[in-house]
Amino acid sequence: MEHVVVTIARQYGSGGRTVGKMLAKDMGIAYYSSNLLKMASEESGISEQMFAQLDEKLKNSPFLRMSTDIYTGDLIPPESSDFVSAKNLFNYQAKVIKRVAKAGSCVVIGRAADFVLKDYPNVVSVFVHGSKEFNLARAMEQNSMTEAEMEKFIAKTDRYRAEFYKHYTGRDWTDARNYDLCLNSSKLGFEKCVEEIKAYIRVRF
Question: For the whole prediction, is pTM greater than 0.90?
Answer without folding.
Answer: yes
